[in-house]
Amino acid sequence: MTTPTPRWPAVVFDLDGTVLDSSEIVVAALNHARADLDRPPVEAAAIRDGIGLPLRGMVAMLSAPGEDVDAITASYRAHYTRLAPLHEAAFEGMKALIADLSAAGVALGIATGKSQYGAENAAGRHDLRQWIPAVHGIIPGTPGKPDPAVLVRALAELRVSAEEAVFIGDTTYDMSLAAAIGVETIGVLWGVHDEAALRGAEASHIVSTVAELRALLRA
Fold first, then answer.
1. Tens-place pLDDT, residues 170-206
2. Residue 111: strand, helix, or coil
3. H helical segments located in 127-180
């Protein structure tokens, strides 16, 4: 792979649906959790639409009145923890791109709707920490996406301004949180939200392949 000349000094990635192919694990884990509590399954499309939100918020959004959101959330975590090491994978070409950006001196971060614990586990599971020093998820007492708090933390660790960074994600929540603090966005079409949704959320750029992303990140 050719090492790209960086267009932005800093690149921050969403994790699920952007770097990692995990949407089917989310769907399976949630419906396993609902089955544990004798609740009916939720349509996969509805679950995918909520990916990117904080976990409890996603579960609450997909729950009927009176359902035990906390119990479903706890069961989901157990199922996801079991399934992710078996089925989660990086999208083809993403790790090579990240390695090349790191070699080119780009400051790299992750800002995800996962918990901080989940973000660090996923980054470790896929050996991303060798290239990405700033791994940020949701910590207790702080808001999740689409609030920009998690991205603000990543930029602070990288010591870059909003104008120096681009945020790459696959959901409208990603586009909204970055736009709220003046960070350019790249919407990727291999995740969960489609082109119309990303354009509606005013993505600065949209790419359909990792090759297109690589080209865009070059000067």
1. 999 999 999 999 999 999 999 999 999 999 999 999 9
2. strand
3. 149-158, 172-180
Contact yes or no for 160/193 (Cβ under 8 A) = no
Q: In the prediction, which pLDDT does 138 show?
A: 94
Query: 20-21 and 89-90: which strand pairing?
Result: antiparallel
Query: Which residues are paired to 13 by β-bridges?
Result: 110, 168
Q: All domains of the chain, ordered by start, with CATH?
A: 10-21+89-217 (3.40.50.1000), 23-87 (1.10.150)
Name residues whose C-beta falls within 8 Å of residue 16's C-beta, 6 or more positions apart in sequence: 22, 23, 26, 51, 52, 112, 113, 114, 191
Q: What percent of the chain has pLDDT over 90?
A: 93
Runs of H (alpha helix) within the chain = 23-36, 44-50, 55-61, 69-87, 94-103, 116-125, 149-158, 172-180, 195-200, 210-217
Q: Is the pLDDT of residue 7 over 70?
A: yes
Specify the 3-state DSSP secondary structure of 148: coil
* 166 phi, psi to nearest 5 deg: -130, 145
